[in-house]
From TrEMBL:
Record-annotated Glycosyl transferase family domain positions: 197-350
Protein name listed in UniProt: GDP-mannose-dependent alpha-(1-6)-phosphatidylinositol dimannoside mannosyltransferase
Region listing for Disordered, in residue ranges: 370-396
Keyword Transferase: yes
Matching Gene3D superfamilies: Glycogen Phosphorylase B
Amino acid sequence: MRIVRVANFVAPRSGGLKTALRHLGAGYQAAGHESVLVIPGAKAADDQTEQGRVITLPGPQVPGVGGYRVLLDRRRLSATLRTLRPDRLEISDRTTLRWLGRWARRHDVPSMMVSHESLDGLLRLFGPASGRRIADVLNGRTAADHDRIVCTTRWAAREFERIGARNVMQVPLGVDLERFTPDRADPAMRSRWAGPDDVLLLHCGRLSPEKKPRRSLAALEGLRLQGVRAVLVVAGAGPLRNALQEEAAARGLPVRFLGHITDPLKVAALQASADVAIAPGPIETFGLSALETLASGTPVVVSSSSALPEVIGAAGVAAGGEGPAYVSAILELLSRPTDERRRAARAQAEKFPWPASAAGFLAAHDVRSTSGSDLVGPAETLGGDTGRAQVAGELG
């Protein structure tokens, strides 16, 4: 089975979408299927990788978003797809690529849209007062244009359930349990930023408005006002970095901005070395970075308005608002014995292996493994007691 995947807004260096695409493609290949990924880039390329064939088509940069590119040449993309002759088409962009659902229908190719973002949430943050009505209209068109919609959490699926879409499946993403492990904790790395009696906080993610990184600064400030010797390390780049650095300096906050870290093992060591991580984004539909942090043995404080409470379960704490609640949540986690909270974080992450995610996505495509590999079957249920994620079966 040839599964062709098309994605826009793939980060040039890293990011949750790029990580998910890589692991799912490798899972499809391991299951005996042919995976082909089509993405935008600065120039055309055609490479064989661990996730299968990766075709890069030229696409323009989107101004002000950190190097993201998009596939806008519909004629060239259509010609590429006709040449590839997909058996299944998987699409990861609900805005500029929604037209591919209609293309697939004209060519008798079953199509699947993966909802990596919350349109309802984005419009709620940045859109007009009528944002929910606009989201409902656009989501209705998305559901009508594709044979299947895949959402990674129950939270993400609700905007489709609200409009009565019947072709929605819930399939969680996963985590690399070998790369992200508590064993990567590095005392030497930790000592660069925190003293032996300091609390080391971590914010790991893109510094953009929808991620609400100022909440992490507010949490640090609130802890220090209560006499907690806390320091914050921020790993990630984005349009708000300069402003955040200036604000931290003006308020006298001990924050280290590391920018984008290219070495994934250094990221894993950083996540394993922190005491508590903060993932304050209010419209996250899954939160791969938070799950990777849990796998590293570090508990996470998340936004109660996002999908992350489903993912972290009892291994973390959800907080509302802009600052004070995050202080309370961090203190609650710190009150737990260190070994206990680290074991709970790792145990929660172990419920989300990538092979199970790949099996769920294949089930959504109505295909199975042809290689005899030991993938978790489509009836497997993941996610624990909080927000269990049903891998197979329609919602609603």
